[in-house]
Structure formats: structure tokens, C-alpha cells
Write a structure and sequence with these properties.
With 304 residues, this protein is an alpha/beta fold. It has a single domain, classed as TIM Barrel (Alpha-Beta Barrel). The chain contains eleven helices and twelve strands. Strands 1-2-3-4-5-6-9-12 form an eight-stranded parallel beta barrel, surrounded by six helices. Strands 7-8 form a two-stranded antiparallel ribbon. A two-stranded antiparallel sheet has the order 10-11. Helix 4 packs parallel to helix 5. The chain is globular. The relative contact order is 0.15.
Length: 304
Amino acid sequence: MKVRLGVKSDPIENRYSFDWLFGIMADFRVDRLQMGSSLSMFTADEGWFKRFRNTAEKKGIRISSVFTSHREMGGWASGDPSLEAVARWGWERLIRVAGLVGAQSAGSSAGIVLRDQPEQPSSGRERFFAGMKDLMRTARREGLQAITVEPMSSAWEYPSTPQQIHEATSVFDSAHAAAPGDTVPVYFCSDISHGVADANKRVLHDNWTLFEMEIPWMWEFHFKNTDSIFDSTFGFGPAERARGIVDLGRLKGLLERNAGRFPSHDITGYLELPGPKLGREYTDVLLRGQLEESLAALRAEFPA
């Protein structure tokens, strides 16, 4: 199995250009981009995406994935038909953009059940499942290979717990098996920093166990560091590695031991950084260093 290194574009939004990011990626021989969402993804004309793909490819960058950045697709769990329609439209747009830029997959988190509406989880899941079954066909028509969902870190944000993950994979696997020629599979965009802790900060499901459990459905994943209760997230600079719980050597070993369990023999892990505070003279300039330190750490464990 080949583990490739990529970068998710989130931290440059409203701060730096893609050309700026492509230059840093080239310095570390990284050629895979996960395109994060922004307002322009949902509003720009199709010609812009075709030009963007052409620009990226001329610089040796493949836009291999499209994935949301802001939890935009929460309407499934709202109980409001208008907001459910927005979620469906957003997914359709995401899939269309993925097709335009030549990505293999498009994905998002499933959505959040609001804390003051505890009656919504069951009905919200059913609406989500029904919508995704339709979108599996949409993605097939657009030429994608998969659509992806990100397991999260709270039982309110589906799927996060082992029970939720098993439920989701059972539903999606059955739907794809019933119409393999007309649908793409639903896989995971996993995150090694995601675990589940309760309201008392007691870890219920650790990030390593959940990540390994997801491997048979893991199409792609995020490289990201975190603390012992999955509260703050950050990168892999020297100081961050000293305080974080994601050991890159351990992760490499886990991937190698499970190489035969992935749905693909070619998987990409994307560095997903939150980046420094946006819109300050003294913070925006820190992003280059954060990216370079993390990419250097990743390249040390995952050579080109």
C-alpha cells in the first residue's frame, strides 16, 4: 500500500493564494491537494474551477479530494425541510465541483444534532441515509470514485462512536452492494486526532482505537495533532509534538500493519491545520512556519 502525503487548503482561506500554498507543497514534494470549501466553492462559475484545475496541474498538483471546511451540511438533522434541501443542494454542488477539478472524491461531516433538540438524532440519521443513497448515484454520474464522511468526536455529531460507525457502514455498504454499477461507495475521511470524551472529560473511545476500526472504509485521512481529551488541534512542529498525543512513528506503524485492510492500495493523508488567528499582522505571517514544520515532520516519517 502506498501512503501519499497531501495538504488540505483550509488555513489559506482569506489569507494566502493557492499559488503560495503550491510553492510550499513543492518544497516538500507534496503533490496532492484536498480542496477545502469556501463561499466561492458554492458560487463561482464552472469555468473558474476548470481554470483552477489547469493551473494546479501545470504546477504538478493534483486536486485529489474536495471536502468541506465549516460543517456546512448540517441540515439533515435539523427537522426543517428547507434546511434539509440546503444540505442536499450543498452535497450536490460539492460533488459537481469535485468532478470539475478532477478529484476522486467529495466529502463532508454528516451534520450536528443541536444540543437543545435531543429528539432529532434518529430521524436525522434516517434523512441523512436517504439523502446519501441518492448522492451515491449523483457521484457516479459525475465520475467520482467515492464520497466520504468524516467520523467526528461527539455522539451529537454522527458518526463518532463505534456503534454509530458500524451502523453507518452497514447502511452504506448495503446500498452500494445493491446497485454497484450505478453508485459509488461511501467511505470515510478519517482523522487520527478524533476520539470521544464525555462531559466530565473522561475518554470513552480513544483516537487510535477508532482510527484502526475505520480502516476497512478509510478512503483518505487527516494528519492532525491533539491533546489528551481531543480538545484543541494543532500540527507537528517540535513544541506541538511535545504536547500532542499523535505520535507519527506510531501512526506509520499502524498504517503498515493494516495495509491489507484498506479499500484502496493508494491512500492519501492530508495535513489539516487550523492555522493561526486569521486577520492579524502578527499571526497570519506564522502560517508558513506552521506548514513547513509540520510537513518536515511528516516527510521524515513518510518519505516521498
